[in-house]
Request: fold
Amino acid sequence: MYTWIKENNPLKKQMLLSILVILCIFLSFAAPGFFTINNFLNVLRNSSMQGIIAFGMTMVMIAGEIDLSVGSAVAFAGCLTAWVVKTLTALGMGAPLAVLCGIALALIVGYSLGVFSASVRNKFGVPTFIITLALMTALSGFANLITGGFPIVPFPMWYNFLGGGYVLGIPVPAIMLVLVFLIVNFIMTSTTFGRSVYAVGGNMEAARLSGIKVARIKMIIMGITSLLMAVAGVMVSSQIMSGTASTAKGWELDVISSVVIGGTSMNGGSGSVKGTFIGIIFLGVVVNGMTLMNINEYWQYVVKGFLILGAVLLNVIHENKKINSIADAKAAA
Amino acid sequence: MKKSLLMFFTAFLLCTSVFAEGQKEAGDEKIVISGIVFQDDQFFNTIQKGMQAAAEDLGVELLLANSNNKQDKEMELVNTYIARKVDAIVISPLSETASVAALQRAHDKGIKIVTYNSPLSADFPVSYVNSSQSELGSGSGKAAREYIEKNLDGEIQVATLAFKSLLPEISDMRVNGFLNEITDIPGVKIVSQQDAWLAEDALAKAGDIITANPDLDILYAANDGGTVGSVMAVNNANKDIVVFGIDASEQLAGFLKDSTDILQATTGQQPFEIGYQSIEFAVKAIKGEPVEPTVIVPGLVLDRRDPAGVDQFLTDLKAITK
Reply:
């Protein structure tokens, strides 16, 4: 019953946290302008869009599934919003109402897409990585279809607030990041629903036998994650003030990396939203630090790649040690 | 004898009638040209529009295709068009070397080859229509020079955003074309050179650069996405930094017209012209008229100080995208 707490091993999180702290201390000396409030807010803002999705992805991966449609879904949501705003304003609707309609439709469609993937998964037993891979291709096509391959720029200037604005000096996307974190973290740590997600990922059959509605749970978390992609998509479109089909290419890799860096198992059943938060900040700090130091672009890819691998390895080694020690303890008993 | 004579006569009749039929067809039949792009983006979409406009104006049939950045798909397409017996293939080859073989086969079958945008290491293309990448950079560079001489003195900090890890040669040409125009101005110092070509990446990168260099004066971005991201980053940072860019789009034109005074100038390629002229030259070559082996379509400089030019661009763009 408490295995999910055990698997949330705090040591694992502290491991990554220590690396992050060391990295930050190093960058404070090596990178000009790193150790400033402004730059921390900057890192938060830069990490926020992918972070928002990563929290959802953590639930999906804990449940033993995956969603690869991230990049296309983000681009599609932004394009859909832009297209709706453009069409409605052309029909004479006021900009504020048109923007509301655009965002609402993007979010509804986003949620439905996740539910759709989960339904196909539940009904036909097709692995989610295949379904969402297909969805990734299709959504990229749809994004290009509705924009005609050209960026759409229908937004009024105030729309930039969502992605580029500030509240009390804090960037709006950073606030969203923290907000989504608090909500998802609460769901996963303090609700029956959260515990069910762990159970589904740990052992689906056992979860089913114990009365958990596996299909329904998968549908909800895939839906929420897809909804979060749409939220990020709307915010990206606000940041760049256009609906562009080529945005967010390859985001799935960064999102999944940060979830795994954060200690979530690729096999499902274990992981934590807090870990993902640290993973997101870790990736953000690495990229930010290298830009501040003006490191050659090619080296940035190399360093980023090895740092991801290193962080994941450390987590895995730690995990194995823990499993071994539990096994030893059992053997001793 | 009588029989063989009859056979010979029949054969002769048959031959002449077939020949006559062939002649008639060649005279009446529409010229068919295939236009191949390799990517689905604004640049290539506009090239296709240019091709379509030229085909309509010149009364030729145009078959459009996209190789989707895949060498095998490109070869397949060329083979298909050889079988289809088109009169000309207008193509932006994916590779200077790997694309040669299939196009050589087409050329051997008498199909005229016109390349645009990207070169081919072969002497059989009748014409190569492109823009000069370093000229695009220097177009914005000249505008930056004027701006600096008029508004800035002392140390002038410059940062660049490019797409070196995507297309190194083109990226370098655009960046160096820009920098060559301003590096001899006393006080100009390049403080940061980074890569980011998608708007949301460029926004983050430019934000980082501004944090690392609080006294930055000028940001230069080598493509549309980089320029959009840079402008939005400066806007977010609320600093006195100006942006010079590359590419021309509705959004960039909007930035040039707004009151924020961030984007100063940008130089766009003229993809519509590139597409139009490629078809034009293909038709000329088919008709046996002389064509230029290399044609440079000049870049179009859009400058904040020339609002009429920006408006003209927007009008033209609307006509194209309709």
Q: What stands out?
A: The CA atoms of residues 80 and 141 of chain B lie 44 Å apart. The longest helix of chain B spans residues 2-28.
